[in-house]
């Protein structure tokens, strides 16, 4: 049997979510500050992360979403990150991340993005890693720029949150940008491989 996909860095491992993570994810994302910019949340019961976890395998296999628990060496599960909006033809995907409030400003975000960049470029052979942020989410904008993403513009009326049709800022990191970004300096070990839909390209040289 193939080993489950994991990406290991100095402090953080990205590993696939399993049912045992539900109570930790509930504790982290029941905080309205954490989910403030999202179309979901805050979690009101542990059944919500349980349902989310139960959907992940089918979404991975279908090439819809490839999400990981951000597992900190000392603190255990501290958030979620991964890939979505895969275009196999164009070899691109989007990264999204949330962290429990205690982990903001600790470097966990930068390390988790380094692990996702390695996944996108060195494992999946993608050419572009994109990200969105709400135009009012200055913290997220700054967090993306400081790890090497370029703010490319604003998509107007891009998505719906409740009754609101909202703009988003769009960011990109190309495979050719990656070597010069601080993400590339983080040592990463990849274990296993993602499901076939996530492997549209030849694994890229790691420069
Ligand atoms: C977005 C998120 C993953 C970023 O992780 P983080 O650990 O908070 O980010 P970092 O500390 O690495 O970077 C934040 C940067 O924003 C700066 N910052 C913080 N508040 C700010 C504000 N109001 N205006 C401008 N910059 C701000 C910080 O100083 C830091 O920059 P610096 O390192 O140059 O000083 C995390 O805050 C989070 O999970 N937020 C909730 C979920 C979310 O919004 N996800 C993004 C969805 S688009």
What would you call the shape? globular
CATH topology: Aminopeptidase
Q: Helix count?
A: 4
Beta-strand content estimate: 25-35%
Q: Care to count the β-strands?
A: 9
CATH superfamily: Gcn5-related N-acetyltransferase (GNAT)
How far do the termini sit from each other? Answer: 30 Å
Describe the structure.
The structure is a single chain. The chain has 207 residues and is α+β, with helices and mostly antiparallel strands. It has one domain (6-198): Aminopeptidase (3-Layer(aba) Sandwich). 23% of the residues lie in helices and 32% in strands. The protein contains 4 helices and 9 strands; from the N terminus they run E-E-H-H-E-E-E-H-E-H-E-E-E. It has helices at residues 22-29, 47-61, 108-123, 138-146; strands spanning 6-8, 12-15, 65-72, 76-87, 92-99, 128-133, 150-161, 164-174, 189-191. Strands 7-8-6-5-4-3-2-1-9 form a 9-stranded mixed beta sheet, sandwiched between helices. The mean pLDDT is 95. Bound molecules: coenzyme A. Coenzyme A binds next to strand 5, helix 3, strand 6 and helix 4.
């Amino acid at each position: 049997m193939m080993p489950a996909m994991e990406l290991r860095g100095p402090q953080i491992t990205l590993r696939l979510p399993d049912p045992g993570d539900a109570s930790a994810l509930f504790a982290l994302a029941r905080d309205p500050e954490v989910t403030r910019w999202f179309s979901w949340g805050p979690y009101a019961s542990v059944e919500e992360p349980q349902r989310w976890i139960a959907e992940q395998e089918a979404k991975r296999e279908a090439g819809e979403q490839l999400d990981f628990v951000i597992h900190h060496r000392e603190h255990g599960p501290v958030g979620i990150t991964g890939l979505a909006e895969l275009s196999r033809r164009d070899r691109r995907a989007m990264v999204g991340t949330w962290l429990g409030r205690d982990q903001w400003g600790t470097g966990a975000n930068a390390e988790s993005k380094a692990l996702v960049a390695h996944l996108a470029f060195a494992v999946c052979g993608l050419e572009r890693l994109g990200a969105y942020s709400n135009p009012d989410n200055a913290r997220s904008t700054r967090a993306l720029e400081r790890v090497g993403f370029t703010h490319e513009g604003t998509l107007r009326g891009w998505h719906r949150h409740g009754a609101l049709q909202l703009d988003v800022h769009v960011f990109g990191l190309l495979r050719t940008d990656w070597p010069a970004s601080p993400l590339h300096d983080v040592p990463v070990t990849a274990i296993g491989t993602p499901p076939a839909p996530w492997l549209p390209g030849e694994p890229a040289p790691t420069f």
